[in-house]
Fold:
Amino acid sequence: MAVFSAIDFDQHEEVAFFCDNATGLKAIIAIHNTNRGPALGGCRMWPYADEQQAITDVLRLSRAMTYKAAMANLPLGGGKMVIIGDSHHDKTPELFRAIGRCVDQFNGRYIVGEDVGTSVEDMVAIRETTTHVVGLPGGSGDPSPFTAIGVYESIRSAVAYRLGKSSLKGLKVAVQGLGHVGYHLCKLLVEDGAALIVTDLDPMLVEKVVEEFKAMAVAPQDIYGGDVDIFAPCALGAIINDETIPQLKCKIIVGSANNQLESHAHGEILAKMKILYAPDYVVNAGGLIDVYYDGPAYNAEIVKIHVQGIHDTLLDVFKRAEERKVSTSEAADLIAEERFDKKSSL
Ligand code: NAD
Structure:
């Protein structure tokens, strides 16, 4: 199995494998880059079909955290942990105490938090064996409202850049996914004068948003072709693909969902169609910023000001893309790489 030459390895500083027979733990911690600070990244628990899938996932996720932290102007690097296991059947407090011991070996160079398949209770068990953990009860709490603020500021930034407008009054936004982020986003958009077209798989969530914000609901498959100015994907990844792109009538795409482009090429197609795409990892960093400030001195106002900075960061991305004649995703990567000094090594 190739490691250093594997495409996803991409200059990782360190990748550590952990195995503990007593608890059944099988886990990997990947530290991509710590030039800007300790590597912060969640712990994902997933029943990977094979070990290669787990390795690929942890490498991609930790690399993405380096880029996200750099674009959010945080003194953090990128890292991630995956546990090979089923979060519905394989969780025990002993398992998470063992994870804490793994994390502790890095003496703060890696900081763990929640991710898919792990919860606040799991972080509490981890805290018994290491202090290098965030997302404990009594701290910053649910980061989604801050993620929504970041998405809203990103929409304002894209609207200013592409449409030359300073408010959303009279604009139409299609919101896909009305969960934790989508709901808060709808509120901010309506307060700024936007009209909403919305969808979700859960009819209760749709009903709530239709009632509260006078939104128009459409079936999930009809959200792409709506006659709107802005499309805000806040549900799943890979929804910008060969099937959906021909349906799009929007001028701008800005949303919280991770990995919205099915491939790099889809970003290039959007650029050719003059649809302004705001790179997701820049847009959705509000949650990470919130987690960074977690702790006894937590101050929501300071977090909000930091998150609002995403507005100007995104303007820099749009300008760089135009100057260099590259896609906005490529422009964001270039800025992030300058910020975390990709060329320098350990
Ligand atoms: P959530 O699970 O609360 O909400 C997602 C919603 O999308 C659900 O209500 C679900 O029913 C809906 N959905 C799923 N598939 C759909 C489809 N095909 N069509 C329409 N609706 C569909 O999740 P969330 O916390 O609101 O996060 C939304 C997205 O933003 C996710 O991709 C997440 O990874 C990303 N994100 C969230 C945060 C955060 O702070 N919560 C931070 C960064 C990124």
About this structure: The chain has a mean pLDDT of 95. The domain at 14-63+79-127 is CATH 3.40.50.10860 (Rossmann fold). The chain is about 40% helix and 15% strand. Residues 143-144, 147, 176-182, 199-202, 205, 220, 234-236, 256-258, 284, 287 surround nicotinamide-adenine-dinucleotide (CB under 6 Å).
